[in-house]
Amino acid sequence: MELEEVLSSKLRMKILKIIYKSGQPNISDIARQANSNFASTAEHLKFLEAEGILQVHLYGRVRLYKFKEGSAKAKAVQNLIQVWEQSK
Fold first, then answer.
1. CATH fold of 3-86, please?
2. Is the pTM above the cut of 0.85?
3. pLDDT in tens, 60-76
């Protein structure tokens, strides 16, 4: 997948920023903070997980998301968000 496709969605970028700031939120928390519905949020999370940017931890029925450890893509996205947020 091309970089443009991964970062082209406003909702995907909101999701990444929420996870960056929150650490390990669940889908409902992410959807609420992003002002999105559960299904759309879950679809974007699945996409980001498939791209190797996010990883999911299951605790019973609860799915918690965080940046994938050891992933160059995840580290690059985190660095981008960090630089962008610091320059505000």
1. Arc Repressor Mutant, subunit A (1.10.10)
2. yes
3. 999 999 999 999 999 99
